[in-house]
Amino acid sequence: MAHLLITGGAGFIGSHTCLVLLEAGHSLAVLDNFTNSSPESLRRVVELAGPSAGRRLEVVRGDVRSHEDLKQAFEVAPVDGVLHFAGLKAVGESMSQPLRYWDTNVGGSRSLLSAMAAHDCRTLVFSSSATLYGYPDTVPIPESAPVRPINPYGHTKAAVERMLGDLAASEPGWRIACLRYFNPVGAHPSGRIGEDPNGIPNNLFPFISQVAVGRRACLDVFGGDWPTADGSGVRDYIHVMDLAEGHLATLDALLTSGEQLLTLNLGSGRGYSVLEVINTFRAISGKAVPYTIASRRDGDAAITVADPQLAEQRLGWKTKRNLHDICRDGWAWQQANPKGYSR
Ligand SMILES: NC(=O)c1ccc[n+]([C@@H]2O[C@H](COP(=O)([O-])OP(=O)(O)OC[C@H]3O[C@@H](n4cnc5c(N)ncnc54)[C@H](O)[C@@H]3O)[C@@H](O)[C@H]2O)c1
Hints:
CATH architecture of the domain at 3-185 and 238-268 and 306-319: 3-Layer(aba) Sandwich
Helix content: 25-40%
Shape: globular
CATH topology of the domain at 3-185 and 238-268 and 306-319: Rossmann fold
Bound molecules: nicotinamide-adenine-dinucleotide
Mean pLDDT: 96
Distance between the termini: 35 Å
CATH class of the domain at 3-185 and 238-268 and 306-319: Alpha Beta
Number of helices: 11
């Protein structure tokens, strides 16, 4: 079993991945400054993972940009590998606060990599994003598609991927995976952990569930005139538990192989339109989800769907859950926690 450092492990994707890693028997040090999360998520992860898990999860409250905080996290136990989730992820905010995004996402990754080298740890799974494809020429999108981000958030992800490529080329021994997530949604089926965004949700799914639970009045659907079957945008939604299992498979692949630099899409390969998501959510929750069609948002593409074949070949992993599972589990979480972790 490995000892792993998880940056940003209290967040949405990090918390679900921590659970899967604990269930696989690994021990974890989580470094998080809780800027967009709550320690409560990790408390519940331990509760779900069972009696021995509390002894295998150490939380270090700290910043991934801080040399001292990183040192503390690396000193919990010798680290076999790092999963790097910590970062800022709101596209709109990245346009108004680009330096904050470059500082946290790029500066934070640079500090982490220096600390890894100093502690002789060269195995890393990095949370990249399909955002870096910008407006894709072809759909489904293979990993070989041009990297052409169209907003500061996407620029920071592309910059970190470049930094990792330079590092892997500069000295032997690095085992790195850049995972380009499509649209992570849903929640653990227990309804105990899920997505709890601060303020107004940035993404479709938490918005729908907050409307359904009565926290918000109405949903804006951005664009009803896209060249798609029903005019709304089409996205590849991936259940967060599939994504978490994808991280476990990636880690296994890195830890059991020689040095390498892997770049993989994590998506389902199946697209659903915004209106399909709303209708499925309504059917499962039995709740009204009032919406209005608003104008298109800058930076949105009509259709974004992964070509997931490379991940299946390299990891033996593919998604198992569908839109029905996503809506059922996301709704269970929202119903049980209408105000997220703050109750
Ligand atoms: N959720 C998505 O739609 C999506 C899609 C593609 C890629 N990603 C990437 O996946 C990663 C995780 O995303 P998420 O949805 O779980 O986001 P999240 O905001 O829920 O989790 C990020 C975590 O990082 C922590 N954090 C932020 N800045 C930090 C810092 N300087 N030091 C220490 N901790 C810090 C936050 O407190 C939070 O717990 C991010 O890097 C994000 O860019 C997310």
